[in-house]
Amino acid sequence: MNDKEHPIPTEINLHRKSRLLTIAFADGNRFELPCEYLRVNSPAAEVKAMGQPVVGKEEVNIESIEPQGHYAVRLVFDDGHDTGIYAWETLHELGLNYETNWNRYLEQLKAIGHERETALVAGDQPLELKVLYFSYLVQKLRKESEQVRVPPKVADIKGLLEWLRRKWLERGYLLADDRVRVTVNRQFAEPFTRLEDGDEIGITPNSPNPPPPPN
User: Fold this and answer.
1) Which of 89, 97, 124, 206 has the fewest beta carbons closer than 10 A?
2) What pTM was computed for the model?
3) Measured distance CA(83)–CA(68) in Å, rounded
4) pLDDT tens, 87-125?
Protein backbone atom coordinates (compact mmCIF):
# COMPACT_ATOMS: atom_id res chain seq x y z
CA MET A 1 0.00 0.00 0.00
CA ASN A 2 1.34 3.47 -0.84
CA ASP A 3 0.13 7.06 -1.09
CA LYS A 4 -0.21 6.83 -4.88
CA GLU A 5 -2.53 3.80 -4.71
CA HIS A 6 -4.37 5.03 -1.61
CA PRO A 7 -4.00 8.83 -1.48
CA ILE A 8 -4.42 10.33 1.98
CA PRO A 9 -5.55 13.97 2.31
CA THR A 10 -3.65 16.22 4.69
CA GLU A 11 -5.76 19.35 4.15
CA ILE A 12 -9.25 20.13 2.88
CA ASN A 13 -10.43 23.75 2.78
CA LEU A 14 -13.43 25.35 1.13
CA HIS A 15 -13.03 28.91 -0.17
CA ARG A 16 -16.66 29.91 -0.61
CA LYS A 17 -16.00 33.33 -2.09
CA SER A 18 -13.81 31.86 -4.82
CA ARG A 19 -15.93 28.70 -5.12
CA LEU A 20 -12.82 26.53 -4.81
CA LEU A 21 -12.05 23.41 -2.80
CA THR A 22 -8.38 23.17 -1.85
CA ILE A 23 -7.17 19.66 -1.09
CA ALA A 24 -3.61 18.54 -0.33
CA PHE A 25 -2.41 14.94 -0.21
CA ALA A 26 0.39 13.16 1.61
CA ASP A 27 2.11 12.44 -1.72
CA GLY A 28 2.80 16.18 -2.12
CA ASN A 29 0.03 16.95 -4.62
CA ARG A 30 -2.14 19.97 -3.90
CA PHE A 31 -5.19 20.85 -5.97
CA GLU A 32 -7.59 23.81 -6.18
CA LEU A 33 -10.79 22.37 -7.65
CA PRO A 34 -13.68 24.63 -8.74
CA CYS A 35 -17.06 23.78 -7.25
CA GLU A 36 -18.55 23.67 -10.75
CA TYR A 37 -15.97 21.06 -11.79
CA LEU A 38 -16.71 18.92 -8.73
CA ARG A 39 -20.47 19.23 -9.25
CA VAL A 40 -20.47 18.22 -12.92
CA ASN A 41 -18.15 15.30 -12.09
CA SER A 42 -20.21 14.07 -9.16
CA PRO A 43 -19.81 10.31 -8.58
CA ALA A 44 -23.50 10.04 -7.60
CA ALA A 45 -25.29 7.23 -9.42
CA GLU A 46 -28.08 9.47 -10.72
CA VAL A 47 -25.55 11.85 -12.28
CA LYS A 48 -23.65 9.05 -14.00
CA ALA A 49 -26.93 7.60 -15.29
CA MET A 50 -27.98 10.86 -16.99
CA GLY A 51 -26.09 10.07 -20.18
CA GLN A 52 -25.42 13.74 -20.86
CA PRO A 53 -23.33 16.48 -19.21
CA VAL A 54 -24.67 18.45 -16.25
CA VAL A 55 -25.25 22.08 -17.29
CA GLY A 56 -25.95 25.43 -15.67
CA LYS A 57 -23.59 25.03 -12.70
CA GLU A 58 -21.31 28.01 -13.35
CA GLU A 59 -22.16 29.62 -9.99
CA VAL A 60 -22.77 26.51 -7.88
CA ASN A 61 -21.13 26.47 -4.46
CA ILE A 62 -20.53 23.89 -1.74
CA GLU A 63 -22.71 24.33 1.34
CA SER A 64 -20.96 21.80 3.55
CA ILE A 65 -18.39 19.00 3.64
CA GLU A 66 -19.44 15.90 5.57
CA PRO A 67 -16.84 13.22 6.46
CA GLN A 68 -17.77 9.67 5.48
CA GLY A 69 -15.65 7.46 7.69
CA HIS A 70 -11.95 7.68 6.91
CA TYR A 71 -12.23 7.20 3.17
CA ALA A 72 -14.41 9.95 1.67
CA VAL A 73 -16.47 13.13 2.07
CA ARG A 74 -20.00 14.01 1.04
CA LEU A 75 -20.14 17.36 -0.73
CA VAL A 76 -23.44 19.17 -0.24
CA PHE A 77 -24.02 21.73 -3.00
CA ASP A 78 -26.26 24.79 -2.81
CA ASP A 79 -28.33 23.58 -5.79
CA GLY A 80 -29.66 20.74 -3.62
CA HIS A 81 -27.35 17.99 -4.85
CA ASP A 82 -26.15 16.03 -1.81
CA THR A 83 -25.72 12.41 -2.90
CA GLY A 84 -22.16 12.59 -4.20
CA ILE A 85 -19.71 10.66 -2.02
CA TYR A 86 -16.19 11.65 -3.07
CA ALA A 87 -13.60 9.04 -2.08
CA TRP A 88 -10.02 10.22 -1.58
CA GLU A 89 -9.07 8.33 -4.75
CA THR A 90 -11.79 10.17 -6.68
CA LEU A 91 -10.65 13.60 -5.51
CA HIS A 92 -7.03 12.71 -6.23
CA GLU A 93 -7.93 11.59 -9.76
CA LEU A 94 -10.03 14.69 -10.36
CA GLY A 95 -7.06 16.82 -9.35
CA LEU A 96 -4.46 14.97 -11.40
CA ASN A 97 -6.64 14.89 -14.52
CA TYR A 98 -8.30 18.29 -14.19
CA GLU A 99 -7.35 19.62 -17.64
CA THR A 100 -8.28 16.40 -19.43
CA ASN A 101 -11.60 16.07 -17.61
CA TRP A 102 -12.51 19.73 -18.03
CA ASN A 103 -11.69 19.81 -21.73
CA ARG A 104 -13.77 16.66 -22.23
CA TYR A 105 -16.67 18.33 -20.41
CA LEU A 106 -16.41 21.41 -22.64
CA GLU A 107 -16.43 19.18 -25.71
CA GLN A 108 -19.55 17.43 -24.41
CA LEU A 109 -21.25 20.81 -23.95
CA LYS A 110 -20.29 21.79 -27.48
CA ALA A 111 -21.73 18.53 -28.81
CA ILE A 112 -25.16 19.27 -27.32
CA GLY A 113 -25.07 22.94 -28.33
CA HIS A 114 -24.79 24.36 -24.81
CA GLU A 115 -22.62 27.41 -24.10
CA ARG A 116 -21.32 28.10 -20.58
CA GLU A 117 -22.07 31.52 -19.14
CA THR A 118 -18.43 32.54 -18.86
CA ALA A 119 -19.42 36.13 -18.12
CA LEU A 120 -20.42 34.95 -14.66
CA VAL A 121 -16.78 34.17 -14.01
CA ALA A 122 -14.93 36.90 -15.83
CA GLY A 123 -17.35 39.78 -15.35
CA ASP A 124 -18.08 42.52 -17.88
CA GLN A 125 -17.96 45.66 -15.73
CA PRO A 126 -15.17 47.42 -13.83
CA LEU A 127 -15.11 46.83 -10.07
CA GLU A 128 -15.25 49.57 -7.46
CA LEU A 129 -13.06 48.56 -4.49
CA LYS A 130 -11.96 50.21 -1.26
CA VAL A 131 -8.31 49.50 -0.49
CA LEU A 132 -6.97 49.97 3.06
CA TYR A 133 -3.23 50.20 3.72
CA PHE A 134 -1.60 49.35 7.05
CA SER A 135 1.73 49.66 8.88
CA TYR A 136 4.56 51.32 6.92
CA LEU A 137 2.47 51.33 3.73
CA VAL A 138 0.56 54.33 5.10
CA GLN A 139 3.77 56.36 5.29
CA LYS A 140 5.32 55.08 2.08
CA LEU A 141 2.17 55.48 -0.02
CA ARG A 142 1.02 58.60 1.85
CA LYS A 143 -2.53 57.38 2.32
CA GLU A 144 -4.50 55.08 4.58
CA SER A 145 -7.15 54.16 2.04
CA GLU A 146 -8.38 54.82 -1.47
CA GLN A 147 -11.25 53.99 -3.78
CA VAL A 148 -10.09 52.28 -6.94
CA ARG A 149 -11.85 51.28 -10.12
CA VAL A 150 -10.24 48.21 -11.64
CA PRO A 151 -10.87 46.72 -15.10
CA PRO A 152 -12.94 43.52 -15.48
CA LYS A 153 -9.83 41.42 -16.15
CA VAL A 154 -8.71 42.05 -12.55
CA ALA A 155 -10.75 39.19 -11.13
CA ASP A 156 -8.83 38.02 -8.06
CA ILE A 157 -6.31 39.07 -5.40
CA LYS A 158 -3.30 38.08 -7.49
CA GLY A 159 -4.53 40.23 -10.35
CA LEU A 160 -5.31 43.13 -8.02
CA LEU A 161 -1.81 43.17 -6.53
CA GLU A 162 -0.31 43.13 -10.03
CA TRP A 163 -2.57 46.04 -11.01
CA LEU A 164 -1.68 48.02 -7.85
CA ARG A 165 2.04 47.49 -8.43
CA ARG A 166 1.70 49.02 -11.90
CA LYS A 167 -0.38 51.85 -10.46
CA TRP A 168 2.21 52.73 -7.81
CA LEU A 169 5.11 52.64 -10.29
CA GLU A 170 8.44 53.00 -8.41
CA ARG A 171 6.72 52.21 -5.11
CA GLY A 172 5.02 49.09 -6.46
CA TYR A 173 7.74 46.84 -5.02
CA LEU A 174 6.19 47.45 -1.58
CA LEU A 175 3.19 45.36 -2.70
CA ALA A 176 5.09 42.27 -3.85
CA ASP A 177 3.13 39.05 -3.35
CA ASP A 178 5.58 37.71 -0.77
CA ARG A 179 5.70 40.96 1.22
CA VAL A 180 2.04 41.48 2.06
CA ARG A 181 -1.02 39.61 3.28
CA VAL A 182 -4.47 40.53 2.08
CA THR A 183 -7.97 40.44 3.52
CA VAL A 184 -11.28 40.80 1.70
CA ASN A 185 -14.09 42.19 3.82
CA ARG A 186 -11.92 41.46 6.89
CA GLN A 187 -11.49 37.79 5.98
CA PHE A 188 -8.09 36.33 5.09
CA ALA A 189 -7.78 35.93 1.33
CA GLU A 190 -5.80 33.68 -0.99
CA PRO A 191 -4.24 34.78 -4.31
CA PHE A 192 -7.15 33.11 -6.12
CA THR A 193 -9.88 34.75 -3.99
CA ARG A 194 -12.42 36.28 -6.37
CA LEU A 195 -13.25 39.97 -6.19
CA GLU A 196 -16.73 41.47 -6.23
CA ASP A 197 -17.94 45.01 -6.68
CA GLY A 198 -17.86 46.92 -3.39
CA ASP A 199 -15.29 44.68 -1.66
CA GLU A 200 -13.08 46.16 1.05
CA ILE A 201 -9.47 45.09 0.61
CA GLY A 202 -6.95 45.29 3.46
CA ILE A 203 -3.22 45.10 2.67
CA THR A 204 -0.80 44.54 5.56
CA PRO A 205 2.98 44.03 5.28
CA ASN A 206 4.36 40.73 6.54
CA SER A 207 7.25 42.56 8.21
CA PRO A 208 7.20 45.69 10.39
CA ASN A 209 10.20 47.04 8.47
CA PRO A 210 9.92 48.25 4.87
CA PRO A 211 12.12 46.51 2.28
CA PRO A 212 14.88 48.48 0.56
CA PRO A 213 14.09 49.83 -2.90
CA PRO A 214 15.26 47.61 -5.77
CA ASN A 215 18.51 48.59 -7.45
Assistant:
1) 124
2) 0.64
3) 12
4) 999 999 999 999 999 999 999 999 999 888 754 444 567
